[in-house]
Design a protein that fits this description.
heterodimer; A: 112 residues; alpha+beta; four-stranded antiparallel beta sheet; two-stranded antiparallel ribbon; 2 helices; B: mainly alpha; Ammonium transporter fold; globular
């Protein structure tokens, strides 16, 4: 089992959600985050006080997957989230040690 | 002779000779307008100014700002009842302050008149001005002042600064007698608040991280909402200062509005040119500058005067803000001095110029030239600035001994709402 964590541009969220549904992904967790990589921040101005704001708003999508789905899901995310411009985001894939469905107590692949 | 009579009408209208019963009957039109104006001006503080300031600070300090505005409204109301009205409009002691003949509003009854309106209405109207003046300067030390210290300072300040200065100008004191023109509070409200603000900012020091760390407004729609309430409420502030339902009120409303609109566009343009983008904070700050600057002039100038004053306000206060913030690096957090202080001063000076009928004004006093009036205005400004600066400084130092003015570094980082009030503005 794997956990895919994708940090994407906020306005691509709907496209990513739809693309994941199409490859058979049933659920996900979405968080609003701030971050930066190579995309530089911007300046904001308030009555002559100019600030450089490094952090940019992003969205983090976390999906738990059976191993077989990982490649297709990753491709789907990349295609849906890409704009071609700096700041598109990253995908991190980590090993999931265990998964539980709280309601039923199922574990492993049945719980995903 | 006309000037002398005119300078007598004001003190009389303000009830200094109630026993003589300067017998003007109560005018229901005047009274209705003054009741309305009173509500409008209180609305400027609650919630106009409260929202305006609240949106400009960080979300962890939003409650501290509204708490300060709200509590000041309550506190000043009580002080006004106990001694404030009397110290401002009671019998004059040497022209410097009123007496205590009307403490606890003794003598202000159902039928007592102040000119053509009931004295109760006059008491209330003037109270709203006494309320908003200290509420204005909370902007200077936003995000770092201890609430207990603020209560002590604001309470003492209205007694030592506001009541005397208001007395000098409107209560039959020496500035009014000298022919000083301050129709609705350029000196009494804006210069005093502005000077107190910059003194407090200097005494208390800058916020941690100023000027480099980002401290953006947390809710600009809230700020704009508050600003809009200020614009509308200001009609009560300026047009209400005509103390009558008449052409003078109408003209005051008109020039006030023109100045607000022109100053907004001017500031917006200045910012667009200098920084490349017109901002929302900029346009509403320009509006406040325009309103503050027209305040002393609003009963004396005509529409063209209002237009020029708006231009001067937009440009002058914009430059002053840059100077204080970027050049001097003084953290008058919400720019009270450059907008209200400087705006008030610009307006007081331009009052002398644009009162002249040749410049579309309603006329200077008989036998007074523009130069004469300018001298008077500058003298009044100086007196107000000097008294306010010294008194504010001393009061801050005294209060600091009783209750430290500033919170600690850690408390400032955590945010005043949690630290001072154990509350969060937002609980998502």
């Amino acid at each position: 089992m794997k956990l895919i964590t994708a940090v994407i541009k906020p306005f691509r969220l709907d496209d990513v959600r739809n693309a994941l549904a199409e490859v058979g992904v049933q659920g996900m967790t979405v968080t609003e985050v701030k971050g930066f990589g190579r995309q530089r921040g911007h300046t904001e101005l308030y009555r002559g006080a100019e600030y450089v704001v490094d952090f940019l708003p992003k969205v983090k999508v976390e999906v738990a997957l059976v191993d077989d789905l990982v490649d297709r899901a990753t491709e789907a995310i990349i295609e849906a989230a890409k704009t071609g411009k700096v700041g598109d985001g990253k995908i991190f894939i980590t090993e999931l040690v265990e998964v539980y469905r709280i309601r039923t107590g199922e574990t492993g692949n049945e719980a995903i | 002779m006309n000037a002398l009579i005119r300078r007598m009408i004001l003190p009389v209208m303000f009830g200094i000779w109630p026993a003589v019963g300067w017998s003007q009957a109560i005018d229901t039109g005047d009274t209705a307008w003054m009741l309305t104006s009173t509500a409008l001006v209180l609305f400027m503080t609650l919630p106009g100014l409260a929202l305006f300031y609240a949106g400009l600070v960080g979300s962890r300090n939003v409650l501290s700002v509204v708490m300060q505005c709200f509590s000041i409204a309550c506190l000043v109301s009580v002080i006004w009842l106990v001694c404030g009205y009397s110290l401002t409009f009671g019998g004059s002691i040497g022209g410097y302050v009123g007496d205590l003949s009307k403490a606890w509003l003794i003598g202000v009854e159902l039928d007592t008149a102040a000119g053509t309106i009931p004295e109760t209405v006059f008491v209330m109207f003037q109270l709203t001005f006494a309320i908003i003046t200290p509420a204005l300067f909370v902007g200077a030390f936003a995000e770092r002042m201890r609430f207990s210290a603020l209560l002590l300072f604001a309470g003492a300040w209205v007694v030592v600064v506001y009541f005397p200065v208001a007395h000098w100008v409107w209560g039959g004191g020496w500035l009014g007698d000298m022919g000083f023109r301050d129709f609705a509070g350029g000196a009494v409200v804006h210069v005093t608040a502005g000077v107190a603000a910059v003194v407090a900012a200097l005494v208390m020091g800058n916020r941690r991280g100023f000027p480099d760390a980002p401290m953006p407004p947390h809710n600009l729609p809230m700020t704009v909402t508050g600003a809009c309430m200020l614009w509308v409420g200001w009609f009560g502030f300026n047009a209400g200062s005509a103390v009558g339902s008449n052409g003078a009120a109408g003209m005051a409303m008109l020039v006030t509005h023109i100045s607000a609109a022109v100053a907004s566009l001017t500031w917006m343009t200045a910012e667009w040119v200098k920084y490349g983008k017109p901002t929302v904070v900029g346009i509403v700050t320009g509006m406040v500058a325009g309103l503050a600057t027209i305040t002393p002039a609003s009963g004396y100038v005509g529409p063209i005067g209002g237009f020029i004053i708006g231009l001067a306000a937009g440009l002058g206060c914009f430059m002053a803000t840059q100077f204080i913030k970027r050049t001097l690096k003084i953290d008058d957090s919400l720019d009270v001095f450059p907008v209200h202080g400087v705006g008030g001063m610009i307006g007081l000076v331009l009052t002398a110029v644009f009162s002249a009928t040749a410049l579309d004004g309603l006329g200077l006093d008989e036998g007074v030239t523009i130069s004469n009036q300018l001298v008077t205005q500058v003298l009044g400004i100086l007196a107000t600035v000097v008294w306010t600066a010294i008194a504010s400084f001393v009061l801050l130092k005294v209060v600091n001994v009783i209750s430290p003015l500033r919170v600690s570094d850690d408390e400032e980082t955590d945010g005043l709402d949690l630290v001072l009030h154990k509350e969060r503005g937002y609980n998502p």
